[in-house]
């Protein structure tokens, strides 16, 4: 072992530096994982971004990618995001450590909106479930597309529900397949005027559907004529 020589350095004090061997080295990926949340400056081999500076959002050793947030707007919380391969990094400079987390998230950007009371949240859940049940109830079981279209049109005009494959309007008139005006039947004690009203509505619905189909057929016919010319 070489002798250690004392040198006269005046007021200078020699600084001992540890001999770091290969076993003590850590990979760049692990080092970046330990710096998540810190502000860093990167030098890369990428021509478009030779130097990048921002907050390290994440570093994934599995995909060998990192995400860096820069130019954060303190008002809106928006940032420019950069995702680049870790292998493209030439050097990393640590500018500042990540701030310690706060217990109440008061510094979160964008600002977090306080949750409403539990009763309000439960009411929203109940309303959403009710809407889903209502939408499901409007879907006929084992009926064709035309029957569903007639039901939807009636539903927009009058209180309507399904009873098996029959359409029930105003809880008084039943419409059986094939759902024509003459297929309307009124229950006992129902006024004739109510049955006539439902028939009239269905006649209008069918006239509108026929006009719509005619327009589609005419459009297809014009298209075929153009394609054949």
Structure description:
With 229 residues, this protein is an alpha+beta fold. The protein is 33% helix and 22% strand. The protein has 4 helices and 9 strands; from the N terminus they run αβββββααββββα. The strands form 2 sheets. The chain has a 5-stranded antiparallel beta sheet with strand order 4-3-2-1-5. Strands 6-7-8-9 form a 4-stranded antiparallel beta sheet, with helices on one face. Helix 3 (145-157) crosses helix 4. The longest helix is centred in the last third of the chain and has 37 residues, at 192-228. The protein is elongated and about 85 Å long. Residues 1-24 have low confidence and may be disordered.
Write the layout of secondary structure elements.
Layout: H1 28-33, E1 39-44, E2 51-60, E3 65-70, E4 80-85, E5 89-96, H2 118-137, H3 145-157, E6 160-163, E7 166-169, E8 173-175, E9 184-186, H4 192-228
Helix pairs in contact: 3-4
